[in-house]
Specification:
The chain is about 35% helix and about 15% strand. With about 500 residues, it is an alpha/beta fold. α9 crosses α10.
């Protein structure tokens, strides 16, 4: 990036021209947006486009300080890791692997703690083992961790004690305490350090053997009340354990693949001023060996979002002429697109043409989130439109966001049966349409929370207050998440 001399304090870090464009846009004293077309893509060309879910700050100097700091900080992830994930996702797109993506609805800074990080790593590992057993395919693991702080909201404000206050929009924007709701740009820098610390501990844990299959795994199934379902799960667990014992007996367990795994990070790319500040231009680390891809060759320079390996566009920010689509079309990372009930087939194909004109395999993951009552009427048309377009994508089912409801007491929850129903429908519909489901995208935690009702634990509305800790949407707890993995594995085994 070319840096200009503008700075708000002598001796402090200067802010790039791209950063100045974002800082100017994101403050109250400069809200006029030029209605212009970007002649070419740059990390800040999104500032010329209309934007949804915008965050406006009061203090221009504070924004400048935060963005200048972010621009000077090192990448959180590397281009080599990003390209390696894209190659793995190419296998998913061709049906050679399965994609498991999961984690918190919205991370809190307080979740940057060893116990919580470890519990999510272990849960994703166990789920992936179950899915490997069922699908007979490798599993690509992506965590909604190390950056999933911001959340889009249906309203920017809410009522509190008879007055209107800004809604809580995530720890990287404002605080949950009603007295701490004004957007604070210093939280962007805090988000960087919490993300970096979380990923550092993930890497250290994987390097220290947390995913080593020589270690015993906790497969406790006491919560399963239905004896026939419990027996089914026990057969799967016994089969996995027997396979591991066999490999140990014949000496095959000495392979390094049993000692660690790849675990990539992801979040919704919502705050473009943050994403832009961590967008860096690097040479492609090695030649693309994918014969179906028109991607860049070794030595070519590309722009990489280095805040995470994988980011996605939300259902509320996927406007074809919008700021988020403009930003996403220029980065080399694999990206996700949330596909909800309001997406038309024509709009979906147009979006694919904008963000993936080279038609790179492994670049695009379509994350469908319709709801159990709408998937049958919407998914087939979307599949056919993409098939006609010639784009090769990953189809991933998000069975969480379309199945949220509030109880009579006003507690937001999801029913496990609805979540399972949408996944089951996705599996069936893809098969009927000569397609295949490439993965699942889940909001989950390794903690014993009580936020979603149903499942083998038999959680009911009255149980939600037992341990409901989410500040945003309800998550599957460890037992419910494992149960969903068992049921998906059972579908593949029955084929």
């Amino acid at each position: 990036m070319a840096y200009d001399s503008i700075d708000e304090s002598a001796g402090g870090p200067t802010l790039s021209a791209d950063g100045q464009a974002a800082a100017s846009l994101k403050t109250t004293e400069s809200r006029s947006r030029a209605n212009q077309k970007a002649s070419e893509w740059t990390p800040s060309s999104w500032t010329t486009k209309p934007i949804k879910q915008d965050v406006v700050y009061n203090d221009r100097q504070a924004v400048t300080r935060a963005l200048a700091k972010l621009e000077r900080l090192p990448p959180i992830v590397t281009p080599k890791e990003i390209i390696r994930l894209k190659k793995s996702l190419s296998d998913v797109a061709h049906g050679k692997a399965f994609l498991l993506q999961g984690g918190d609805c919205a991370e809190l800074f307080d979740y940057c703690e060893s116990g919580m990080i470890e519990s999510k790593i272990k849960l994703l590992l166990q789920m992936s083992l179950i899915l490997i057993y069922g699908a007979h395919k490798p599993v690509v693991r992506i965590a909604r961790m190390a950056g999933q702080f911001a959340k889009p909201r249906s309203s920017p404000t809410e009522q509190h004690n008879g007055r209107t206050i800004p809604a809580f929009r995530g720890d990287n924007i404002n605080g949950y305490d009603p007295q701490d709701r004004n957007p604070d740009p210093s939280r962007l820098v805090s988000a960087y350090f919490h993300s970096a610390a979380t990923l550092n501990y993930i890497r250290a844990s994987l390097g220290s053997g947390i995913a080593d299959l020589h270690s015993p795994l906790d497969w406790e199934l006491g919560h399963v009340k239905d004896e026939s379902i419990k027996a089914q799960y026990e057969r799967i667990v016994n089969s996995i354990a027997e396979s591991l014992r066999f490999m140990k007996t014949v000496g095959a367990d000495s392979a390094s693949g049993l000692e660690t795994v790849d675990l990539y990070t992801s979040h919704e790319g919502l705050l473009l001023e943050y994403e832009q500040s961590l967008t860096r231009r690097f040479e492609t680390p090695f030649k693309d060996t994918n014969p179906t891809s028109s991607s860049h060759n070794e030595g070519d320079k590309q722009w990489y979002n280095t805040s995470a390996h994988f980011i996605w566009i939300g259902d509320r920010t996927r406007q074809l002429d919008g700021a988020h689509v403009e930003y996403f079309r220029g980065i080399a990372n694999p990206i996700g697109i949330k596909v909800g009930p309001s997406m038309t087939a024509e709009e979906l194909v147009s979006l694919l043409e904008i963000v993936n004109p080279r038609r790179e395999t492994g670049k695009i993951t379509l994350i469908t989130r319709y709801g159990e009552s709408k998937i049958a009427s919407l998914l087939p048309g979307h599949i056919r439109a993409v098939q006609r377009s010639g784009h090769i994508v990953i189809w991933q089912c998000d069975p969480m966001h379309g199945n949220t409801f509030s109880t009579a007491q006003g507690i937001k929850t999801r029913h496990f049966s609805s979540i399972l129903s949408e996944v089951s429908s996705a599996l069936r519909i893809h098969k009927e349409e000569n397609s295949f489901l490439g993965g699942v995208h889940l909001e989950l935690t390794g903690e014993a929370v009580t936020e979603c009702v149903g499942g083998s634990e038999g959680l009911k509305d009255k149980d939600l207050n037992t341990n409901y800790t989410s500040y945003c949407d309800p998550r599957l707890n460890e037992k419910q998440a494992l149960e969903l993995a068992f049921l998906v594995a059972g579908f593949y085994r029955s084929e």
